[in-house]
Specification:
heterodimer, A: about 350 residues, alpha/beta, Peroxisomal Thiolase, Chain A, domain 1, 12 helices, globular, B: about 375 residues, nine-stranded mixed beta sheet, two-stranded antiparallel sheet
Chain lengths: ~350, ~375
């Protein structure tokens, strides 16, 4: 056993990286003021400006397919048939039993010689799939693996989460470092049994522990994962051009960035929550697509997800020269955000199936 | 009847103690009080608590805490009287020592409220109201207080902002209390902007849901000097009751239970409001502060608010209240609150209240209110010279 094997930093046997990436955010926007109008007579502050809402014909499958196609468009000439695993992390898989991943794999031409799997770990299901993809490729078992984090998040009408629970996410094609637009330097996971947010079977909406979701949950896990990874890699906040943290609201990622020693400028490019809300399993991953859209060769990027229950995955990336030509080969994350159609609360209720008759 | 003295006090920091269980909270406060008194055993232990059964599925607290604190075998009970459980437990301890049935008695108030979700805690707290005629209608505790506050404003012509000085005063004092949940000041402007909870009650009118424990040790006053250099005599210990339901009250804006409770305590002590150097009252909501000041004889009906507006409630003023933050800033772990109040009065009478020390404090009063006023327990404490 080498010294490296004993560290808590996760590193693959062979160097891997992101070959292609793609975002998806639905076009509909529900202003937070509209939620406040219904539930608080418009009084009080709101945690974000507005959130994205899926259309009537959209779910985690359709959204994952579009993000996956965007990631393939940026992957050069990768044959989808060489993708040995298609993994989708979400907490809003359309079926309770029947994989999302098989539908996505079929749609992009990855079947039949591929693994299909749906991941579940609250808001870090996507980064878990991403980490596992790094391992699958890094071990040499596969040349390419597609990892997706995507959600159409649900919140109980009137709950504080209704201001933010939104739809969107990102897809990442992982492959050998030689083909990568961003190389993976290492990752680290930090997981404890901390029940801050959950949804039992047969329940429509999640429950949460109020302020308990803050310090002992979000902040503890993100800071531990980020610090552990940076210590293991010998990096510091100032080494990173960009940092992306899970963004359930505007306050949490800004606060955790400050706690860790990052400047507001370092988190700005990936901070989308004010415009699209909290896309749950897609939240940090769609933040990363927005960063990669503007990143330059040589930039280091830190990604730290957070999933309730609870845990964080931290990833350190180094952007390569290949990014320059691939950024424009698919719609940018900001393109999706700019494609905005405002809706009112009644339309939101209809689009998200909140009327149960 | 024997004179009774407090010979030791202890408390935990009030807060959201997600990683500390009820028994550990009780242990910490109890051990601190017993160390302060210099005792290693007690004749009887009373545990004041309201919601352990409902919120953490644990009753039978007397034996539980006694065993956990190394007092296995000791006579021990839980005492419940809604938010007045703490002071009610102290009242029982007082009765035991005064009646000569026990010599050394420990009283611990403890509450663990943050292991449940907010709506469940709110529902549990509503058990302090009349289940058939209030809670069954969907009225929460904050709603009952909102009804009283709205009526008070209507009858006496006050605006909501007139209540601001209570929160400002409590938070100003909480700053200097290391055991307080909120150790930061608030301004009247911040009060004006605070989030509405249940109109007209906003966030800064309200005490927080939290965890905590506080404890005192009692002994016969004539033996107190053997344990403590600064014993405090319980000069008055009294309970008054009223209807559980607000709508059954003779006058909803008069806390008859508090009037009875304070009158009895004054009579026992041979005192009147003029003798009281500080008053730890039950400011669960700011309307309760106003009604308490009136019921205890510090203001005429409808004039409790006037005391605050005239600057009469600060540390150096006519009647200092919530001197260590009160329920608003120190926090309101319901079954523990009555003991926190008494611990704070004892610290004032000992001259150990630091930056919040009331000058020359000789007599202090603590009043713990259960429900919207159905059980009111008052203790008048006097420094033993």
């Amino acid at each position: 056993m080498t010294k490296d094997d004993q560290t808590i930093v996760l590193k693959p046997e062979r160097a891997v990286g992101i070959i292609g990436y793609g975002a998806y955010v639905p076009r509909y926007r529900l202003p937070a003021a509209e939620v406040a109008r219904i539930w608080t007579s418009g009084q009080g502050g709101t945690p974000v400006k507005e959130k994205s809402v899926p259309g009537l014909d959209e779910d985690v499958v359709t959204m994952s397919v579009e993000a996956a196609r965007n990631s393939l468009a940026r992957a050069g000439s990768v044959d989808p048939a060489l993708i040995r695993a298609v993994w989708v992390g979400s907490e809003s898989h359309p079926y309770a039993v029947k994989p999302t991943s098989t539908i996505v794999a079929e749609a992009i031409g990855a079947t039949p010689h591929t693994q299909g799997g749906d991941w579940e770990f609250a808001c870090k299901a996507g980064s878990e799939a991403l980490q596992a993809a790094i391992g699958f490729v890094g071990s040499g078992m596969a040349q390419y693996v597609l990892a997706i984090g995507m959600d159409t998040a649900q919140a109980r009408p009137g709950d504080a989460l209704e201001y933010t629970a939104s739809a969107g996410g990102g897809a990442y094609l992982i492959g050998p470092a030689e083909e990568a637009l961003a190389e993976v330097e290492g990752s680290l996971s930090y997981v404890t049994d901390t029940p801050d947010f959950w949804r039992r079977a047969y329940q429509h909406y999640p429950s949460h522990g109020g302020r308990f979701t803050g310090q002992p949950a979000y902040f503890k896990h993100i800071t531990a994962a980020a610090r552990g990874l940076m210590e293991g890699l010998g990096t510091e906040p100032s080494d990173y051009a960009h940092a992306v943290f899970h963004q359930p609201n505007l306050k949490f990622p800004r606060t955790v960035a400050k706690q860790l020693g990052f400047t507001p400028e370092q988190v700005e490019a990936g901070l989308l929550v004010n415009e699209i809300g909290n896309t749950y399993a897609g939240s940090s991953l769609v933040g990363l697509t927005a960063v990669l859209d503007v990143a330059a060769p040589g930039d280091r990027v830190l990604l730290v997800s957070y999933g309730s229950g609870a845990g964080s995955d931290a990833l350190s990336l180094r952007v390569t020269e290949a990014i320059v030509e691939r950024q424009r080969q698919a719609p940018a994350t900001r393109d999706y955000i700019a494609r905005r159609v405002e809706i009112d609360y009644a339309t939101y209720v209809r689009f998200t199936g909140k009327l149960r008759i | 009847m024997r004179e009774v003295a407090i010979i030791g006090v202890g408390q935990t920091k009030v807060g959201e103690h997600w990683d500390i269980s009820l028994r550990h909270l009780a242990l910490e406060a109890l051990q601190a009080s017993m160390a302060d008194a210099g005792v290693t055993r007690v004749d009887t232990l009373y545990a004041g608590n309201m919601l352990s059964g409902e919120l953490i599925g644990q009753e039978h607290l007397g034996a539980l805490i006694a065993d956990f604190a190394g007092l296995r075998g000791t006579e021990a009970f839980k005492i419940e009287a809604a938010c007045a459980s703490g002071a009610a437990a102290l009242r029982m301890g007082f009765v035991a020592v005064a009646g000569g049935l026990a010599n050394i008695v420990a009283v611990v108030g403890v509450e663990k409220m943050t292991d449940t979700l907010g709506p469940d805690t709110t529902t549990a707290l509503a058990m302090a109201s009349d289940a058939d005629y209030e809670a069954a209608q969907g009225v929460s505790f904050v709603a009952l207080n909102a009804l009283l506050m709205r009526r008070y404003m209507h009858e006496y012509g006050y605006g909501h902002q007139d209540f601001a000085p209570f929160a400002v005063n409590a938070h100003r004092n909480g700053v200097n209390n290391p055991f307080a949940m909120f150790q930061f000041p608030v301004t009247a402007e911040r009060f004006a902007r605070a989030k509405m909870i249940c109109d007209p009650i906003n966030l800064l009118d309200s005490s927080p849901i939290c965890d905590g424990a506080a404890a005192v040790v009692l002994a016969p006053a004539d033996a107190a000097r053997a344990f403590s250099a600064t014993p405090v005599r319980i000069a008055g210990s009294a309970v008054g009751t009223d209807t559980l339901a607000v709508h059954d009250r003779r006058d909803p804006l008069v806390l008859d239970g508090a009037v009875l409770s304070t009158r009895r305590a004054y009579e026992q002590a041979g005192m009147s409001p003029e003798n009281i150097d500080l008053f730890e009252l039950h400011d669960a909501f700011s309307i309760m502060t106003a009604l308490s000041l009136e019921a205890a004889g510090f203001a005429e009906k409808g004039q409790g608010l006037r005391l605050a507006l005239d600057g009469e409630i600060g540390i150096d003023s006519r009647i200092p209240i919530t001197t260590m933050g009160g329920l608003k800033a120190r926090g309101h772990p319901v079954g523990a609150t009555g003991i926190y109040q008494v611990v704070e009065v004892v610290e004032q009478l000992r001259g150990l209240a630091g930056a919040n020390q009331v000058p020359n404090a000789r007599v202090g009063m603590a009043q713990n209110i259960g429900g919207s006023g159905a059980t009111v327990v008052t203790h008048i404490l006097e420094r033993m010279e």
